[in-house]
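Hello,

Our lab assistant flagged a job as stuck in the queue for most of the afternoon. It eventually completed. Since we weren't sure the result was trustworthy after the delay, we are filing this so someone can double-check. Below is the sequence as submitted and the structure that was eventually returned. Let us know if re-running is recommended.
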Amino acid sequence: MRNIGAGMIAFPLFFQVGYFRAAPQQGVLQATMRIEVDAKRWQWLPDLREFFAYRDLFLVLAYRDLQVRYAQTFLGIVWAMVQPAATLLVMTLVFGRAVGVDTSGLPYPLFAITGISAWTYFAFVMKESGGSLIASQEMVRKIYFPRLLVPVSKSAVGITDLLVALIFMVILFVYYGIKPETHIILAMLYLLGIMISALGVGIWVSALTIRYRDLQHVVPFAIQIGLFVTPVAYTAGTVTQDLPNWMQALYFLNPMAGLIEGYRWCLIGVGDPGGWCWLSFVSSAVLLFTSFIYFRSMERVVADLI
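-- returned structure --
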């Protein structure tokens, strides 16, 4: 008997159909079908094996978003450089010259770009992931695939903005003739925490936006407020030095507060990564873990609500 194909096709209601074989001596196609219905198959955390099986779709979604973002634009990918450059210019004028933020003797543009590089990535993922499922509603309604691929693909696209901001940072290091700190290798740990925090918030917002469409209007406002309450343009100590312990703990529950503070310390030695910074790591992990659970609970009904 010659085997002309074997496979498993996954459907939203967890039906599995497969094992198709041909019998050439009879000249007809014989099919052996196995249907499995398992009401307990739902998992409260994403299935990594299923996610890996759809890795090609993940790459296609990320590439599509990246391509559409700069399609038919005059400057193309140069637009990715405009945002951090404009933000750096405004912060230098306001916080560097007008306010006079203490940078421990370092040039303010170099001080600020360390925070801007991290915040730019976080803001992009939070904003783009928020409406990602609604933007892909036609695909979500028609075919089955792990819905988590949609918001997660936005975090991959955001790496472009992060790389551009890091290039700005390298240029400023060279321009001012300043060498990074010896513990710069630890910056990767804080950068990983920033990515986890951005992904957790992005998944939360994408799932909540399905049920509460008003969040699409709240997210841009929240990003603007977050830019000023997070130590991007100043050190965390500027805010927390005279606060009681419980208010300091509350401040560092903002995951980006401790992560940006530690990230800056690893690069230029300014700021204090100790103290309450561990709360930001815990907050990031909790955000990601709970976002997976809530997204999975919404995934079963997303096609009906979207």
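-- support follow-up --
The delay was a queue issue, not a problem with the job. The result is valid. The chain has two domains: 1-39, 46-293. The beta strands are 8-10, 16-18, 20-23, 28-31.
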